[in-house]
Amino acid sequence: QVQLVESGGGLVQPGGSLRLSCVASGFIMSYYTMSWYRQAPGKERELVASIPTADGRPNYADSVKGRFTMGRENAKKTVSLQMNSLKPEDTAVYYCKAESKVWGQGIQVTVSS
Q1: Nearest residue to 79 via CA among 33, 46, 44
Q2: Quick one: which of 1, 20, 30, 74 has the fewest CB in 10 Å?
């Protein structure tokens, strides 16, 4: 079964950190650009970070540059998103995606005091 499963979300105070993980199954992850998206209430889904297959260097949205770090381990079929210095505006459902292939189910991240 082709799927992505996210974990690691939750509630954190402003300035805190969380690490999201995403495990792929049913397909060869190394063939695909892997991305993290997020969708806040009442807003459109937006791209947060992605790592292409070509050179493995991540790209980030301006809103998270310097605070978020995306990684991928093809052998373990996992991608991660380390989120530091979290802000209330980072509150959203975060989705892992294998581009042109499959979305994860999403995981809630809430930044609040």
Answers
A1: 33
A2: 1
